[in-house]
Every structure is written in C-alpha cells, then in structure tokens.
C-alpha cells in the first residue's frame, strides 16, 4: 500500500474556490460545521467528537498493527505466484468471517493476492457481512434473537447461499471496471514447500479460531486471548515475523506502525463525523413498523442510512440493533430474513468514511483516480447489496 495524503477530488474549476485539503481535515471541519449548524452546544459538540473519535481506535490498533506486520513480512518473501493469489482470493470470504473483520482479512491476505486483490476485497467484505459467525451472529445478538428462534446451522447455510452469488457479482464488477486484476504482476514460480511455509501463519490462525469455537472460554487469560480473532492474528503475525531475516524485522514493524498511524487518524475523524451526525438525526422515526417484505425493505433502507453515516461496518451493526429490534419484535417478520436484510443493507457502501475503503484503495487501486476508486468500490458494494436483497426477497416469497 502506498502512503499518501488523500484529498477530496475536485475539478480544475472547483479547485479555484475550494482548498485542496487532506480528507482528514475535511472530515474534522465538516463535523464541527455540522454540529454548530445543528445548534449543538460547544461542550456537547466537543464531547461527541471525542467520544466518536476514540470509540474504536483501540480495537483497530489491535487489528491493524499485527495485520500490517503480517503483510510486511509476507511482502519480503516474494510470493508473487498466481497460485498464491488464487488461494488468497478463494480463502477471503472465510477469512472475513473468521476474523470478524474485512479489514483484518484483507490486510492479512493482500500481500500474496497479486492481481486478485479486488477479488479478495469483495470476497472478504461479503464473508464478513453474510457468513456465520460474523455479521449474522452479531446482528442476531444485537436484535436479541437467540438460538431458540434461529438455528446457527440455518444461519450458516443461508449465509453461504447468499455469499457465493454476492461475491461473484463483486468479482465480475471489479474485473469489468478495473480490468482483470487492478494490480499488474509478473508471474513467477514458487515451490509448493515455500508456499506452504508462507501460508503457515494463516493455517495457525485458522486452527486457533477453530479451536476457540470448539472449546469456548477456558478461564485462562492468555489462552482465551489466543483463541480470539485478535489474539490469533497476533500469533500469526509473530510467526510470519520469525520467517523474515532478523535484520529485516525492524523494517516490518516500522512499516506496520506508519501504515497503522495514518489509518487510525482517518478512522478517528470518520467515526467522529458519524457520531455527531447520528446523534443529531432520529433515524428510528423514519422507518414505520410493518410486516413481510415491506419490513424487510425498511430494515434494509434503515441499515443503509446507518452505514452511510457511520462508515464502519462494525459500528453500523452496533448502532442499528437498538433501533431495529422493536421493529422486528412487533412486525412479525421472519427473524432470519430480518437478520440478513440488515446484513445486506450494511454493504452500502464502501466510501471514504469507511476504513475498508482506504485499505483497498491504497493497495489494489493506488493508481486509480479518487473518483474512479470510489466508483469501483462503492458501485461493487451497492451491486452486491442489490443482488443479495433480490435473492433474499425471492426466497422469502417462495418459502412463505
């Protein structure tokens, strides 16, 4: 990924009247302007900004630092083979779900993805949103829907059925808009032994996550941490770092710190903007309670509003639950359909106020204009959401 200061794209004429500022500065200024124009007292505005800015920074630091360490270590192993890229792309939906974060999955797998980076991006995004135990489990827990109402196996089966076509749509869109692979790469051979050793960190991470799902909490702090996604990711990063020559390890860590620091600033500003906006707009009054397909469409639209305001997918899942829960409870809508309507609404869209945008944009689309990068990522995510929602509504009509 290249390090640069992102700015809002502007035409030559527009630049005459509007300063060309980094996106972080724009977000901070717009957040303050929004609060002041909305009549928020200065104390409340600052408190809301502080709360939003620091809301998820600690969690993202635990995700991004080991992810970028893993990425830097893998980049020094010359894994440029087409087989490695295809493997990373094919594993992306499972990685997105298993790591409970598309950002982590993409950052971890992108160094070996080569010309399949957009395939990986849309796959990790779809897996996190639709595959159990990620999006469906998070939304179900937020809505208060327990295992008595919804069988986990059923959630997993429906999630797989939706993920495959939704991911395929994203892949086709990305290849059409950016060509067959947004990043050019010279094909090179790599032995199966080297490929196996290089993917060993991912195998370790998968084993730890699988063991965590089987064993659950053990009461031993260190072991419980390693069996969680962030702990498993840290273990994988340490293993990958050990595979690098000792004199290159500090460079890997320095690279991880630089890339994490710049992204945390963008994420903090975006989160602050979303916090102030959602604190001023009563979105729960927009969607009336109803039943059937109308309720599903209302939940889908409501989640879109939250996602556009929040940026972060995880923050969207956390914020939508208290608003959507009473609608689901009183409407009589199928709870499984409601869960996936919310999950699909959170696809819209991959915009600059989403940390995932910057991960993919700076890596897979570094040579693209800002506006075109937004169109490729957001257009693909919107198309994924639309196709998934059509399939969900068709399934509801057939089975009810």
TrEMBL record:
Tell me where the signal peptide lies: none
Entry-linked InterPro entries = Glcn_transporter (IPR003474)
- The molecule here is called Gluconate:H+ symporter, GntP family
Question: Which of UniProt's keywords are assigned here?
Answer: Membrane, Transmembrane, Transmembrane helix
Q: Which GO terms describe its molecular function?
A: gluconate transmembrane transporter activity
Transmembrane regions: 23-49, 56-75, 130-148, 154-174, 195-214, 220-242, 263-283, 289-306, 336-353, 374-399
Organism per entry: Cohaesibacter gelatinilyticus
Keyword presence, Transmembrane helix: yes
Any GO CC annotation of this UniProt entry: plasma membrane
